Amino acid sequence: MKDIWKAYKDTILVAGIAIIFIVFLIIQHQFLYMYHDDYGYASLSYAYLVDGVSGTNYSLGQVFEFLSGHYQIWGGRVLYYLFEIILLGYTGLAGYRIVQALAIFGIFFVMYKIMNKLLGDKVERWKLALTCMLLYGIIEIMTFRTGIFWISAAVSYVIPILFLFIYIYVYMFKIKGEQTNTKTKNIFYIAIMGICIFLATFSQEQVGVASLMFVLIYTVYNAIRNKKVSKLDIAMNVVAIIGFAILMLAPGNEVRKEHPTSIDFYQKPLIERTIDGIQATIEGNFGQNNKIFGLFFFTTVLIASVQNIRKHYGYKWINYISLLSTTGITMLMFIRTEGYFSYVYSLVQGHRLILIATIGFTLLQLFFIAYTVTMYLWNQKSEGLINLFYCAIISQGVMIVAPYFASRSSIVFEILYCLIALKIIGDMYKEKDTKQIITCMMIPFLLICLLNMVTITKGYYENSHVNTENDQKLRAVSEQIANGEEVTEVTLKQLPNILYSGEQPYTEGNDYIKYYIRQYYNLPEDFVINYEE
Fold first, then answer.
1. H or E stretch including 489?
2. What is the rounded CA–CA span in Å between residue 411 and residue 141?
3. Which residues contact 234 (CB under 8 A, 6 or more apart)?
4. C-alpha closest to that of 343 among 283, 275, 284
5. I need a surface site. Which of 100, 141, 377, 497 has the fewest CB within 10 A?
6. Distance between CA 61 and CA 361 in Å, rounded?
7. Over the Cα atoms of the chain, what is R_g?
8. CB 305 within 8 A of CB 326
9. CB–CB of 243/197 below 8 Å?
10. Percent of the chain with pLDDT over 70
11. How far apart are CA 108 and CA 259, in angstroms?
12. Residue 348: half-sphere exposure toward Cβ, Cα within 13 Å
């Protein structure tokens, strides 16, 4: 038995950690409920209304009619809305919960597989697996509630990242990194890559552009290095461009610009929109809602700066400037609740020219950070991660031209950057003289992540009994009406803690959500829904 444990210790521990994580995710997702436009998509009534639909009773033809109308008047994210509709309409919320839990597990498990290949045997696999799984806790509640536990967001913002990670893993380690023995194996891997990159680019604008740029940048890099463009890269570019084009060329993308929530933005001068967009994007990624990630990000950049100086990577003076700048940012991240950037911008609000100069200064700081990370990864011969790092930046750069920066918009950057951070931390862990330092830094950080995961789960659990009771009441009155009984209203309960939920119909400005609730439960248009505290 001892010999078996010694031979398979890492494998057994990794399997145990993976099982615990997937069980946790499945339990956590039992407290996931529908909010806001989830009801509209599940009843084919959001943005485009399909005639002849009763609640979730509809044909596949009606589903495609809805998606076609949505594509024409609202936007191109129809592929993943198809998944959402099929799951909610035909398997119910229980089916969707399982699928999303498995998808999130897949993201962090493939992250582990990628890093295990990159870091090698000097990092114990079980420690790497545990770190990857706990990084799920880097996502704080405001990002979580609008990016993970809001179905219509998670289905297009988060789930496609799994396919991007699978593409990266297969491309880097099955096609490039290992010699496959048979033509059949190569065809299989190429098919997997093609499917995954299509599913990644035909998803949501931020994930789509990051995925497309990953393929394009690698193609240019390979062409320069090998002095020719491979047929595989050409094929993957074609597939990626097709997927992204379908997403972005939807007529609904233009129509949506005339929506009241967007029209004021597009009427502003381009320079004003750009300045506001830069400020909102920087604050959105490194502000109050993302304190854990912000500290994680800047701490890993500090580590990279120190390593660059120690190992003489890149220009010494830039590394020293980056080290000093990042140290100041990190210290203020600890001190100020709103984060460094929001604090600095708040000091010059009302002084437009000074604010523009301040934004320019903080962009210079971020440039030094990008340089630090790039030089470190380049000298570690991690060109794939350099590519991913800039794709993560691009995923946020596109938000500069968006009407507003939603808190969920940072989730793409957070998840993608975890791979870069793990490489920086893992390399330092592999060195004998710095192993203990990294261990002492990571233990409290991972405990914070664990505490965040538990706190969020507990918050949703405390709301779950009211969510379940409200759902049962609405289903009961729907059945009564279907049986011919005269029921004109229902009184539901408000949630104990609205922080751990999506938007609610009883909060200011959200009364319209009742329309989608009536559609989903197949209730009359004049049916009254009340809420009591």
1. strand 489-493
2. 12
3. 219
4. 283
5. 497
6. 54
7. 24
8. yes
9. yes
10. 96
11. 37
12. 16
